[in-house]
């Protein structure tokens, strides 16, 4: 048993490969049923349930730039409208595809600013990828609004298992994907979702819930994202009960403030929703609030599911990563960047290297 495996054993995590009744998960069909159990558990106890109403998605291209980025790409600005029998919401996003590519792979970027991919669009295009970018607060506000802005209007609220903002942003990403698959020439089999920090949490939820994403990328997502809560340093559940972040989760989640050991799940359950698709977790060595050790351990913990289904999970040398290490061989990719909480060009370069290597 190596050092990583010993640490995982000490943390006494809930078991991924056991059904809720205690029976073992043995086959790929078993895993499908176990995945649904995990999905239901995470919605009820952490993120909240998305709306169960019927809805329609319509998008209108309101602007087209034929020579974006100095002639390298074509950019469309889309106003996406979502209607149910009881409510509606709309928000803009952009889709930018490189010229000369018949079916380009695409990153769906959850962005902190209206700037495409938070200003790094050209590097992504130069890497051979298209970009769909959305300013997350255009979907619903990241502040207390009685859940009445944007997508928050799509269901009634209760204090237990109604969806939080993370689930709203993730659901909005899937509605973008609805339009992209129908109206663009992007490769439908190679669409990734990516986010940083709270949007890294969102990307994990979007990619976990929506199996149409071939790759899920989460950068420095920390508590409520990739990092295990049991024996975590930095951010804990009580910290997430702050004035802004408490809105990100369902009410039931905060029953576990100071009681992380009693959680019926840990964050490796969220990562496991992507199995057997590709997953990429990026950490930063000085991001103590997120806790890169616990992010890495979560990858190691979920690896058993990939391996049980016959796929390489996290392929690593049996020790904790050092600054600059990249583990790209398995269906779980990971790197540890030197530095603090940030989504950098270096992060993007390593993520794109992984995508090209696996053609996802």
From TrEMBL:
Keyword tags: Hydrolase, Serine esterase, Signal
GO molecular function, a single term: carboxylic ester hydrolase activity
Sequence intervals crossing the membrane: none
Source superkingdom: Bacteria
Keyword Cytoplasm: no
Sequence ranges assigned to domain 4-O-methyl-glucuronoyl methylesterase-like in this UniProt record: 87-310
Official protein name in the record: 4-O-methyl-glucuronoyl methylesterase-like domain-containing protein
The keyword Hydrolase is annotated on this UniProt entry: yes
Entry-linked InterPro entries: AB_hydrolase_fold, GCE-like_dom
Pfam families: GCE_fung
Organism the protein comes from: Candidatus Limivivens intestinipullorum
Gene3D superfamilies per the UniProt record, alphabetical: alpha/beta hydrolase
């Amino acid at each position: 048993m190596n050092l990583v495996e010993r640490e995982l054993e000490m943390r006494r995590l809930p078991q991924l490969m056991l059904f809720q009744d205690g029976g073992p998960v043995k086959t790929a069909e078993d895993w499908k049923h176990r995945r649904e159990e995990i999905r239901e558990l995470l919605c009820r106890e952490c993120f909240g349930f998305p709306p169960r109403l019927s809805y329609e998605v319509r998008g209108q291209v309101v602007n087209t730039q034929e020579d974006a980025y100095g002639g390298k790409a074509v950019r469309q600005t889309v106003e996406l409208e979502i209607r149910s029998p009881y409510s509606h919401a709309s928000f803009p996003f952009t889709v930018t595809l490189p010229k000369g590519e018949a079916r380009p792979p695409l990153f769906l970027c959850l962005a902190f600013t209206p700037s495409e991919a938070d200003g790094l669009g050209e590097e992504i295009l130069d890497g051979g990828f298209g970009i769909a970018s959305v300013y997350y607060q255009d979907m619903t506000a990241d502040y207390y609004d009685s859940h009445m802005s944007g997508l928050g209007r799509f269901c009634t609220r209760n204090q237990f298992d109604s969806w939080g903002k993370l689930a709203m942003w993730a659901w909005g990403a899937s509605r973008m994907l609805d339009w992209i698959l129908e109206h663009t020439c992007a490769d439908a089999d190679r669409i990734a979702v990516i986010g940083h920090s709270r949007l890294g949490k969102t990307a994990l939820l979007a990619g976990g819930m929506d199996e149409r994403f071939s790759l899920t990328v989460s950068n420095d997502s920390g508590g409520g994202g990739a990092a295990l809560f049991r024996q975590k340093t930095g951010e804990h559940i009580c910290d997430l009960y702050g004035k802004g972040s408490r809105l990100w989760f369902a009410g039931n989640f905060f029953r576990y403030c100071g009681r992380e050991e009693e959680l019926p799940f840990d964050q490796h359950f969220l990562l496991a929703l992507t199995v057997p698709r590709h997953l990429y977790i990026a950490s930063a060595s000085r991001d103590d609030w997120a806790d890169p050790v616990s992010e890495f351990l979560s990858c190691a913990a979920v690896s058993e599911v990939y391996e049980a289904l016959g796929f390489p999970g996290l392929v690593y040398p049996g020790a904790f990563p050092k600054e600059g290490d990249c583990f790209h061989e398995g269906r779980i990719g990971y790197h540890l960047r030197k530095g603090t909480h940030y989504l950098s060009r270096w992060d993007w370069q390593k993520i794109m290297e992984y995508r090209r290597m696996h053609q996802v």
